[in-house]
């Protein structure tokens, strides 16, 4: 009789343990199901029913293959493990089919047991897939814009090129593969200018300055030189200080300017020669004497002055008289430097009715005779508004990529930290519970950890939905 009583007590404990196991499975937010080694459902929880839209009774009459996208099964069929096989655990992705016919992506954690059972935990990863697709689309948009741009585009990290577009490589006679991974100044900058360029790169990467705009002498692959103009700003990509910018080949423009300088004394005496040179360019040019009286200007300069200063030729030809009062102190400082023999280059913007400013790159350089006596100066202004817009769009594209990358990183961090903590606690508590299944304190701890895990998963799903951006 005593042995019979002990056996009945053992059966009662086993029944209670199975009931607790069933409650844990049923309350799980992840879809959990059991299969035999033939692929038949032998048990499913409520989350699995909700995930697929079937009732428990319907699923227990089905095979797992009935719930997977048939197109995926054609190229990636199920592989059933023999009963004699040892325990295994696999994590992979599958496409499930809802009862309504809609396909969706899930991540499945498959654990096989030798006793003809396979336990699977499935999680809907539709939101994560959408975020990954957004990231790929953002990168594709940037690549499409950059690769087809007529402006050279580059990215520098750790002092080396990590991206250049075809136009950038073409200007220097290289392929993109030849320049990627190289130090910029080593291959494409004239030796006399490398120290200045290296210092500019160092200052931006270290955070001393945010952006620069400068002209320098380039070095082509065939050994010839060209003039290039760089615009570059400091950004953080993958938490790494980087430089993203654009490059223009200004060789032809420099030749025109050199021609003006070469002819400077004769140009002062010959209006016809001056008009021939400066009216064949889209840059606004004006020739001034040391008193800043306008000696000559091209048509582009007249349109520039009329638009930005409301200039009227009949009102006089002194440049200072045309400069707005709020800009006069800085402009006077620049003039003093030029008349002292130093060329000046800067950017300036003027408001437009459409809300986007008109940007100009202004250059002023002195004109001197053979005795280095300053005779006057040349004022040149080039409309760079389109270039500025391109920079803004380029910066926005990278900010979007960074946003998606940070969202995915944040999700991954939470998965590896916030979920792992309650799971680790649950593992430890289950081991304790094996020693004393009736321990109410341990059961209360398990319940609390399950509540915490469920809250974390719900919060992550809501956060992921809120962060997803569809472009």
Question: How are the SSEs placed, and which strands pair?
Answer:
Layout: H1 2-27, E1 31-35, E2 41-44, H2 46-52, H3 56-59, H4 70-75, E3 88-97, E4 103-113, E5 117-124, H5 126-148, E6 152-157, E7 160-164, H6 166-172, H7 176-179, H8 184-188, H9 194-205, E8 211-219, E9 225-237, E10 240-249, H10 251-262, H11 264-269, H12 271-278, E11 284-289, E12 294-297, H13 299-309, H14 328-339, E13 344-350, E14 358-368, E15 374-383, H15 385-417, H16 420-435, H17 440-467
Antiparallel strand pairs: 1-2, 1-5, 3-4, 4-5, 6-7, 6-10, 8-9, 9-10, 11-12, 11-15, 13-14, 14-15
Overview of the molecule:
It is a single chain. The chain has 471 residues and is α+β, with helices and mostly antiparallel strands. The protein folds into three domains: 1-123, 2-Layer Sandwich (Beta-Lactamase), CATH 3.30.450.20; 131-249 and 388-404, PAS domain (Beta-Lactamase, 2-Layer Sandwich), CATH 3.30.450; 282-383, Beta-Lactamase (2-Layer Sandwich). Helices cover 47% and strands 25% of the residues. The chain contains 17 helices and 15 strands. The strands form three sheets. It has a five-stranded antiparallel sheet with strand order 2-1-5-4-3. A five-stranded antiparallel sheet has the order 7-6-10-9-8, with helices on both faces. A five-stranded antiparallel sheet has the order 12-11-15-14-13, with helices on both faces. The longest helix has 33 residues, at 385-417. It is elongated. The model has no long low-confidence stretch (mean pLDDT 79).
